[in-house]
Amino acid sequence: MKRRVVITGIGVVSPIGIGMEEFWNAIKEGKNGVDYITRFDTEGYSTKIAAEVKGFKPEDYMDKKEAKRMDRFTQFAVAASRLAVEDSQLNLDLINKNRFGVVIGSGVGGLSTLEEQHEKLLKKGPKRISPFFIPMMISNMAAGQIAILLGAKGPNETVVSACASSTNAIGDSFKIIQRGDADIIVTGGAEAAITPLALAGFSSMKALSTNNDNPKIASRPFDKNRDGFVMGEGSAILILEELNHALNRGAKIYGEIVGYGMTCDAYHITAPAENGEGAARAMKSALDDAGIEPNMIDYINAHGTSTPYNDKFETAAIKEVFKDYAYKLKVSSTKSMTGHLLGAAGGLEGAVCALTVYHDFIPPTINYNTKDEECDLDYVPNKGIEQKVIYAMSNSLGFGGHNASIIIKKYV
């Protein structure tokens, strides 16, 4: 028999709140985390807005000296992991550390460190490069640092699949526990890519919103006037645990992961496949893995980036999978509030789905004002709703054609 896997802890560092409770209250209120970029001068950039994490102090979660040896994305991951472990009430002294793992997703890793050290190389020469440059930059270091902090000696890996990274990380963790290779895994994602180079790169691709005059309405998934995504940053970490392990210690259970699907478009480096064909297969795969019918899903947290193609084709994919029932589904994009956390997006949205099934509250898509004829589902416009949710699905779709879907079920 396959072992059952539940979520017993949630830790969040996000543009709309630090800590799970502050984050969830912000989601319920429809709080907007998008504003003008403050971390560097955006003179000359076509986009000047993003969803930055405000008020984050690394020393609140880790040794100050150690924090200086971590890139911002790793600091976020370590902080969110500490918050998740606290929320789970895990006693780290009583668990088998050899069956305690870490799987983290990140799309770009330590980009700010790379930029800073490259500038130092050009200005001051190779001998001035920090000896911590490489271990600060490489994407796997968030998982490594979390393991060091917690003493997790079990499976440890980093998933890099663009914007699907942390949904893949959660799904992979689910499978690792399900097949018996670990009892507890710290999983999710971290990203800190609001940097000069990343902003310039995404701007050059014409992928970002240029609604600089109205940052609060710039991220507007599924709205007819959407003009690109808004970059976000942060980390969201889930504690996944084998069910009996959780029950034996009296853990609080937010929900149970029951399905995981992943596919590739094999189509284009940035554009989604026509009509969301790859995304549809990922959703079908997750449903098959869960052993449930499409009409049992109550809510979908869509990838919903606020780009013209993603929203159109993800809508088409949902309609392909769910047929007429698609119009009865509640579908929303919380990127309207948090911006797009790239490789960490799926971690944050997995946390949203867990909290949705736990609290029976469906979050809104804010900034939804003008209907698009090609995006004609119920996107829970502007105001969340209280509704019983048994099954929630989270979708993540990334550059390179990576697609991932997970399904979280209410634990009863």
TrEMBL record:
SMART domains: PKS_KS. Pathway: Lipid metabolism; fatty acid biosynthesis. The keyword Transferase applies. Coiled coil: none annotated. The keyword Transferase applies. Pfam families: ketoacyl-synt, Ketoacyl-synt_C. It catalyses: a fatty acyl-[ACP] + malonyl-[ACP] + H(+) = a 3-oxoacyl-[ACP] + holo-[ACP] + CO2; (9Z)-hexadecenoyl-[ACP] + malonyl-[ACP] + H(+) = 3-oxo-(11Z)-octadecenoyl-[ACP] + holo-[ACP] + CO2. GO terms for biological process: fatty acid biosynthetic process. One of its GO terms (cellular component) is cytosol. One of its GO terms (molecular function) is 3-oxoacyl-[acyl-carrier-protein] synthase activity. Its EC number is 2.3.1.179. Residues 2-410 form the Ketosynthase family 3 (KS3) domain. InterPro entries: 3-oxoacyl-ACP_synth-2, Beta-ketoacyl_synthase, Ketoacyl_synth_AS, Ketoacyl_synth_C, Ketoacyl_synth_N, PKS_Beta-ketoAc_synthase_dom, Thiolase-like. Keywords: Acyltransferase, Fatty acid biosynthesis, Fatty acid metabolism, Lipid biosynthesis, Lipid metabolism, Transferase. It comes from the Bacteria. The active site is at 163 (for beta-ketoacyl synthase activity). Belongs to the thiolase-like superfamily. Beta-ketoacyl-ACP synthases family. Involved in the type II fatty acid elongation cycle. Catalyzes the elongation of a wide range of acyl-ACP by the addition of two carbons from malonyl-ACP to an acyl acceptor. Can efficiently catalyze the conversion of palmitoleoyl-ACP (cis-hexadec-9-enoyl-ACP) to cis-vaccenoyl-ACP (cis-octadec-11-enoyl-ACP), an essential step in the thermal regulation of fatty acid composition. This is 3-oxoacyl-[acyl-carrier-protein] synthase 2. It comes from Caloranaerobacter azorensis DSM 13643.
